[in-house]
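Dear support,

I submitted the protein below through the web form. The confirmation email said the job was done, but the results page showed an empty box. After a refresh the structure appeared. I'm attaching both so you can tell me whether what I see now is the final result or a partial one.
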Amino acid sequence: MNAPVISGTSPFSESTQVSISGPDGADIRYTTDGSTPTESSSLYASPLTLSATTTVKAIAIKNGVSSSVATRTFTLQAAGGEGGGGGDAGSGSGGGDE
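What the results page shows now:
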């Protein structure tokens, strides 16, 4: 049996929607904590919303037969380049130590 397909945008900023599809009639079981999914893992029913870097793993199960594990990591992209991001906002003061 084919492994599920995990779809979504990575890297992402703020959040991303993740969809998992598999063979017709198969249950999709998944994890988001890096562990290998089993028959007792969460049952996929609707897209997941991720807001942090997360590894999604999934298996398809049909008639008691499990697929291989599909794995995809979704990475939260650090904000950068806009707004200055803090730091030394007061540079230029206190420069008289010579």
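Response: this is the final, complete result; the empty box was a page-load delay. Strands lie at 5-7, 16-21, 27-31, 42-43, 48-50, 54-62, 65-66, 70-74.
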